[in-house]
Amino acid sequence: MRLHHVRVLGPTGLSTAQTVEVNAEGAEDRDATGLVLSPGWMDLHAHLRDPGFPQKETLLSGATSAAVGGFTHVLAMANTDPVTDRGRQLTDAIALKAVGAVALSDDGRHAIDRAMLGRALEAAAAAGLPVLIHAQAEGLGDDPDAEAVAVTEALDALRDVGGARLHMQHVSTRAAVDLIGAAKSEGLPVTAEATPHHLALSSRDVFALGPHGNVNPPLRSPDDRDALCEALVDGVIDAIATDHAPHELAAKQAGANGFHGFETAVGVVLGLGLDGGTVYRACVSRPREIVGQSLEDEWILIDPDAEWRVDAASFKSRGKNTPFQGRRLRGRVIMTVCRGQVVTERVMQHV
Length: 351
Ligand SMILES: [Zn+2]
Ligand SMILES: [Zn+2]
Prior knowledge:
Elements: E1 2-10, E2 13-14, E3 18-21, E4 30-31, E5 36-39, E6 41-46, H1 59-69, E7 71-76, H2 93-98, E8 104-105, H3 114-127, E9 131-133, H4 144-160, E10 166-168, H5 174-185, E11 190-194, H6 196-200, H7 206-209, H8 222-234, E12 239-240, H9 249-253, H10 265-270, H11 276-291, E13 298-309, E14 328-338, E15 341-345
Helix pairs in contact: 3-4, 4-5, 5-8
């Protein structure tokens, strides 16, 4: 498929309009004036709920939703039933790597103490895997302090273990950003992600959202949100990851934490007003570098000017629990191509 007049998102931002050939069986050449071609985004943090919770999501509905949202790779967290693998005992990191695990994570809970984290970092280092943590000292609830304490402990553990790599999931506070920034200046091998909702929303949105504003970590103050956005630009936050956490409506109304993430991510991220190079780093290159994946033949075509109103009923995901319901977003994925196949294509309606 030849795309004419398309701009390409790369490490230095957007190219000028050009003709690009994308390997896409059966797809016709087209005029792509105004459109942006990006390598497929990678989501370091998603809950696919399979096995165990088909009312929330399945591998098929989750993967379809990811593709529609522009993600050609997602990292599925382990808090399934049965758990893919997690707990108070160390897992066999080398065996997990042999069957395809690209990282170890405690996400869903932070039931890990300092000594256990140290041993997990050692085991992961021996297997060449990073450890991803949901940094929140459980005994302290979900206050900003609970994040700062867990981040401090984790960085201390990392300092003691040579060769380990630590990745902080869904960083949400200025205090954590400052700690991670200082650790990076010190040369510690730590990376961090922030979610689209923590970058775009704040505690001011919580009241209007009711139970649909419940998420862990919670939406923070506008000052915390500003700190995350600044940290994303200056590279203290490496990546944007959705923490896609689908729930059925009844669970959400009963107070379950978590947001649908995949199908709103591109619109929300483009709405942050970042430069193209930062978007490429946060959504394409750093997520892959963090888990050692190389970019494959995977592309998304984005209409950055498409305005649309979020309607969860149209989501491919079983999780309709979006905090962006009814909001107008600008920017949408119109085609996803993987390994020569058009995986999803949206018929554009001008609204
Ligand atoms: Zn988490
Ligand atoms: Zn999560």
